[in-house]
Amino acid sequence: MTVENASAAPRIWRKQPFIKNPLTRWGLYTAALIYLALAVSTVPVNWARVWEGLDRGWRFVQGFLVPDFTSRWGDILIGMQESLTMTVTSTVVGILISVPIGIGAARNIAPAPVYAICRGIITISRSFQEIIIAILFVAMFGFGPFAGFLTLSFATIGFLSKLLAEDIEDIDESQTEAIGATGGGWWQVVNYAIQPQVMPRLIGLSLYRLDINFRESAVIGIVGAGGIGATLNTAIDRYEYDTAGAILIVIILIVMVAEYSSGYVRKWVQ
Amino acid sequence: MPIKKSEAGAPVWMHRTPKTRLLMWVGWLALVALFVFCWQVMTKDTIWYFVADAPRQAADIGSRMFPPKLDYMNELWGPLWDTINIATLGTLLAIVMAVPVAFLAARNTTPSIRFVRPVALFIIVSSRSINALIWGLLLVAVIGPGVFAGIIAIALRSIGFIAKLLYEAIEEIDETQIEAINATGASAMQRLDYGITPQIMPAFAGITVFRWDINIRESTVLGLVGAGGLGLKLQASINVLAWGQVTTIFIVILVTVMISEWVSAKVRHSLI
Questions:
Q1: Residues 220-239, chain A: which have Cβ within 8 Å of B?
Q2: What range defines the domain where residue B39 resides?
Q3: Which of A130, B54, B89, B218 is 20 to 30 A from A34, comparing alpha carbons?
């Protein structure tokens, strides 16, 4: 916005820059520019191959628009069955294990050594991606949904325990005190003062994790841990783009249904 | 408050009414039944011999993984650079595509709620439902293996994430500032530039850095499907059962992820 009569009011208002210190600002811009130039120059792009692939990409788009559900329907069904059962069992087992760990990792109710151990477990579980854990579990337990189930349970522990522990740390202490004042022991405090406060959020987080576990179950099949990901991988390897399109549509639909229903349940619980 | 009369006639406090208790009991029973059913279906083809054998396998792999083969590090600098490039360039590419989508999806800036908004929301949903690895799988088949496929995969996955959080931020802006800009006789572009952008800028920077952090994580494993970066080396090492090299790669991934997490936490902290 410039002022109309510049001679009467010589000062011109300018927008504030996003980063105030000019030295940091220009330093950051230059560094970003140098990095970009370096990065782009080291990315090898085989344009001939890309050009060739566009035709294949177009066939994939066609496969997505005209999906073929019928010819591999049996495989899709088995993959979906594995993915869904894996999702349910791993979420349930994950919750069962993560509740005690979550309680143990809450600073306000757990003794220091238990706190340290539980935080350690959470850190280990959170530091690696599902797919890397899946590789290890497939190497140990063999191919198939059992390895996937273990992977997802393991990943659930880190996610759920951490959020549950943070939630327990944030509770209203007066209720704990009230139960303590009636002579309630540790168990009674957890059961009557803490559990009612964290339950709505625990249910919400569990549903959210169910959702995540399904999405992940579609991926870990790529490394052999069963589920719809394995079916998808096979379909793409066979260049059956119409079947791959069908599988992707099924995944998107289930994810959407899961997201909406879990959002609805969460609203209802809270 | 649910109360039960004791035998002496004195009221006894109960946590729940009998009806709620029955309903909860049925709910839990249904959950257990579902779990048992799913367990049966899932494990019907499981070879229990392999499962029983797992501790021995784990000990075996564990003994091969240590000590890590640290001189393998010399071969990892290149892939590490690629991994960071995949995440960063992918995020930048995603921003370019996500910002218009976000403005089209936000209720207060979209040109048409009935026609344009659903299309933008559909783009967001389909981008979000498909994991970067699946995008990678598709793109490697379409445009060939390599870093370029990884960048596009990360970008396609990030559009939905960035656009969703950004359009929510746009919908939450303070309308009075837009009105004030409007009152000066500003055009639509000026409204965007002076009214909306300054309000969403902190949120936008936070979202971007957060997604960049997630993308670093994802790009470390994108190579498993052939899309370049550290994952390629991981796949190669696993295929030849060189577990010492695998450990080295794990350490590199762990350190990279921790640094990116630290950077993102630092930046987001200074923004808020």
A1: 222-223, 229, 232-233, 236, 239
A2: 3-65
A3: B218
